[in-house]
Write a structure and sequence with these properties.
13 strands, 3-stranded antiparallel beta sheet, homodimer
Chain lengths: 561, 561
């Protein structure tokens, strides 16, 4: 299918190649850990950072296979796994369905190896609905990922054209660029022309789960008139997109007729596009949302392909003023009802959340979601914690995202610096993804995820030992870290110098601490108590030895500066 | 004094003029609210944002007088206030001293008007030690600012040359640039040559409190050998800097001999420069820190000028691994002792805090500080919540800063993108200050500060009503917000268009909500219950009227796009 699309598009070139993996991550190597699972051999990707002291650190890696021709698409590691299940005549292909039957799928084994946990734990979390593995059986290119609060916090990047801007090539490039920096899933929010083709290109080149908002395409089918939206057209769109391999659908089935008036007193009304469409539909017909009344039929499509629900928060607040209001929480209750129905079909569910929330109201969002939706994974957009900084909403929202992630949100939808202002370009996508990798990792550290701090400790050790190259290479964005260092001290020698550029060669506190430790070690002092006992006796020696913790300027550790 | 310095420096030119206030804040005007206080007329600055609907919003303003010749320095609004107190023979010039005597000083009245609270409340908070007004009587150029958790959260920006880089002109420019974007105080951390002259230029051009770390200059006096540091030289440095008008001193008097061994098992030892100097001194002499033993003599200098203590956290953690450890909290206890002593002298005190702390350990820092230091204002560096993102530490730390500010930190010391890597340039200073203005405002919103949300609501209202120019002008960085918008939709007409560029003209959820509301209003529907009751009857009408919530493409609100 992708090839036919590509043939139709053959005049189109990807004109701005993005830097390679090696250019983005010097000192890193893509490695695959091989895992036996039944008759399958799973290849689980990591980014291996080689350190100058001979050690290495393996980091979670979202970047996917490198160097593939986008016109041919990626390799298809899941083909065999899926074929095996299809051959035995399964009708419900949901990971939840297999999990509840006690079956550990290759997908579960894969994410277990990726997260460093037992496959049985993965199975149990998926069976309980506390985690999802969005993995459409028509998306064999996927490297499976698990989304649940017992696992590493995930992030999503949105891409997609719009009526005013963007092209298919740009969207595929944005996908590749987003996963390069760490996006765990990508949503294609295209609303303009060629959305089928754009989606096909994206899916055939995506190692990460792809999400969509099918109501956008459904609206185009009915000529852009929300009152003409209807379940039959919507189901057709679902099947079309499920056939292509979309892994999760945002569906605004929780916006109910009775909720709409609750938004009338808001400062910023309904800001979700899907939410406002469904509200408009409800008002026009004075009928209940057809996505709600037709939910069981939607579930039939979902389980046939294993598309995961991302139940949309159509009434999320669009400003701090509207946070945590009656409309928002009324919809959340409806999403809980729908979760229960989806689970009766063994269909996987995530719950979407806000949006714009002051810090003191963030935790309530998680607590209520876990209670109302039976611990289904929460998937929030930010939240932004102040409205006053358009142009910097990757930061305003990373603050909220880190906080909501800590309290149990499983996936954080990124916000770019262009939020509220315009469409993100390549650099905006990178800035958004990096801000969210920071937020997600901060959340994992705060949650006390067992191996989260290995990375921080490795980098801090490199920093303390003045292994500058290791510090750069271990960082989220090595090239930027190195460039910032070089802006102050460009000489190659400065990267092996035993001082940091902030303080200069004579005045570095890390150097002083090293000297203090060396002093203690040379004189046979051990740590802790021993130091305490030996101090008095040794103080005189230290003074006699010159008591100098600095080298004379220019003699910095043997390295010319 | 500044003039003589300037004459000595007269060959020096400020060569890179920064953009003007008007260029940075289009649509804004500097206004002064006049406040009578005894025989003084105080002029309290605000940034007034004029809106297109005829309204305006006054924001807290740190930018200081504009258009002054830096060689002549700023006007001196405090001269009369200070002269009056000197004339009556005061010996202790501390704001705390006056507050405890029941006197509301012009400085207190000024900050009360600035914060929108009663002067008596300010006096009571200063008297109790819960807030400080750093205001050296030798700094008449100051526009007083209050630092305490009952008030708006403040931010500090560090500037200062170093052995490897920077110049006096650059430092003055950084000061002006930092306060342009919202720094409430500035620390001059210079360690290289000409630190006296640099400081003089900065003070004579600073409307905000200036802090320093006097141990840096004391070290230069003793030839760079920490073992030769001593109280007499240190006191001379204090007097020299106090005479110049420095408003607060970071003094690492809480690093005690018995604390030093507690750091031996750390991943990153002692990372504070002042802290490592004092630790080295303690080890060299096997004596107690002379800043601790000589603390009462230091207090004598502080009260003569009204310099505020910023008791340094010399043992703050330098990595997440070392956060909240025994060394850190042992020092905090010592800082509590010193607070009590300072308060016996009516000397104002802030307490410095970390640094590098995972989110789940942030609140404990505030709670312990408030308990150990009797609610003296807490002043933290970040904290950074993950170590893995050098190059983005303005973001990693803004996350921690917002969180710690919410829980009661009174002032947040900024971190720039160059932290751990190099010296910040002009853009880094701006990025750091803006990230921290975001964090501080997020904290104020979360604390529920009475007027904090006015700003967010004004911007959100402008956003919802498609008043693009107002949205830009109300934002923290209007020029950047406008530039981001124009990158997608550069036409002037797009700024009055009734859609946002993210979704395009046909597909804007804000437009849909507006249509829904208009529909309700036109048909005489009121909010809430009325809507609920009227819905059934009106649905048919809506459908009959076409039920169209979109305009045909190209007819967008009358504006060509």
């Amino acid at each position: 299918m992708s090839l036919s699309v590509n043939r139709r598009q053959e005049g189109v070139q990807i004109i701005h190649p993005i830097p390679s993996f090696a250019e983005c991550f010097p000192g890193s190597e893509k490695v695959y850990r091989e895992v036996e699972h039944g008759r399958h051999r799973l290849r689980v990707p990591f980014r291996r950072v080689h350190l100058s002291n001979g050690e290495h650190l393996d980091l979670y890696d979202t970047t996917g296979p490198q160097g593939c021709d986008p016109h041919r698409g990626l390799p298809r590691p899941r083909s065999e796994w899926i074929a095996e299940r299809e051959a035995r005549g399964e009708r419900n292909h949901s990971q939840m369905h297999f999990a509840r039957r006690g079956e550990i799928t290759p997908e579960m084994a894969f994410v277990a190896a990726r997260e460093g946990v037992e496959p049985e734990f993965v199975r149990a979390e998926v069976a309980a609905g506390r985690a999802v593995i969005p993995a459409n059986r028509r998306h064999p290119e996927l490297e499976p990922v698990i989304i649940g609060r017992a696992f590493a916090t995930k992030i999503n990047a949105n891409i997609g054209n719009s009526a005013t801007h963007s092209s298919i090539e740009e969207e595929v490039e944005k996908l590749q660029w987003a996963i390069r920096w760490g996006a765990d899933t990508v949503m294609d929010l295209s609303t303009g022309a060629n959305i089928h083709e754009t989606r096909e290109w994206i899916l055939r080149n995506s190692p990460v789960p792809i999400g969509t908002v099918p109501i956008y395409q459904a609206l185009e089918r009915v000529g852009g008139d929300p009152a003409k939206l209807n379940l039959e057209d919507f189901l057709e769109v679902l099947v079309e997109q499920a056939e292509q391999g979309v892994d999760y659908f945002t569906i605004h089935a929780g916006v109910l007729l009775r909720h709409v008036p609750l938004t009338a007193g808001r400062l910023t009304g309904i800001v979700s596009r899907g939410g406002s469409l469904m509200a408009a539909w409800c008002l026009a017909h004075h009928e209940e949302n057809f996505l709600y009344t037709g939910f069981e039929r939607i579930c039939e499509v979902m389980k046939e392909y294993d598309v995961t629900f991302s139940l949309g928060d159509g009434l999320r607040p669009g400003s701090l003023h509207d946070a945590n209001d009656e409309a928002q929480f009324a919809e959340l209750e409806a999403l809980g009802e729908l979760t229960r129905i989806a689970w009766e079909h063994d269909v996987q569910v995530m719950i979407e959340g806000p949006g714009h929330v002051p810090l003191d109201k963030v935790k309530e969002n998680v607590d209520r979601e876990l209670a109302a939706c039976f611990e289904a994974p929460f998937y929030t957009l930010g939240p932004i914690v102040t409205d006053v900084a358009p142009g910097y909403d990757h930061i305003t929202s990373a603050i909220g995202a880190a906080h909501i992630g800590w309290h149990g949100t499983a996936m954080l939808c990124y916000v770019t610096p262009k939020e509220h202002l315009g469409l993100p370009d390549r650099d905006d996508v990178k800035q958004g993804v990096i801000a969210y990798r920071i937020a997600a990792h901060a959340a994992d550290l705060a949650k006390g995820l067992p191996r989260a701090r290995e990375w921080d400790d490795a980098l801090s050790r490199a920093r303390f030992e003045f292994r500058w190259e290791d510090q750069f290479n271990l960082s989220l964005d090595p090239v930027t870290a190195r460039a910032f260092h070089d802006a102050t001290l460009p000489a190659e020698s400065a990267k092996t110098a035993h001082f940091c550029s902030m303080c200069g060669p004579k005045f570095c506190s890390m150097r002083i601490t090293e000297d203090v430790r060396r002093y203690a070690a040379e004189r046979g002092l051990d740590e802790g108590e021993a130091v305490r006992e030996g101090l008095a006796a040794k103080a005189a020696e230290f003074a006699a030895a010159g008591g100098r913790l600095y080298l004379p300027e220019g003699a910095g550790g043997g390295e010319p500066v």
